[in-house]
Amino acid sequence: MSIHIIPINKLSAAALKGVIEEFITRSGTDYGTEEATLDTKFRQVKNQLKNGTAVLVFDDETETTNIFLADDPVLKKIVCSEQNMT
Fold first, then answer.
1. Nearest to residue 52, comparing CAs of 77, 31, 71, 25?
2. What's the rounded Cα separation, in Å, for the pair 4 and 66?
3. pLDDT grade for 45, boundaries at 50, 70 and 90
4. Do the Cβ atoms of 79 and 26 come closer than 8 Å?
5. Domain CATH code at residue 14
6. What is the arithmetic mean of pLDDT over 66-86?
7. Structural domains in the chain (count)
8. What is the DSSP letter of 9?
9. Is 70 exposed, middle or buried (0-12, 13-18, 19+ CB in 10 A)?
10. Calpha distance 45→80 (Å, rounded)
11. I want to staple 60 with a disulfide (CB 3.0 to 4.6 A). Which of 2, 34, 66, 70 is the partner?
């Protein structure tokens, strides 16, 4: 497995928009007890990516992208596993 954290400034505005839109419309994405509009969700995720509290991740093996909170233990475990493999 090869996981890469992708700086959002490496994506075009259209590509970033597409990644965020795909992420926020996935079933099971949790935004708390009150449902938010798609525009609100989009702004929240984009702001988190811009301020570094969330990161964009690309998986070479599955050729998929995902967004993780920067302090997510799952992300830290993946990154540590990747570093130990090199």
1. 71
2. 10
3. very high
4. no
5. 1.10.10.610
6. 76
7. 1
8. G
9. middle
10. 24
11. 2
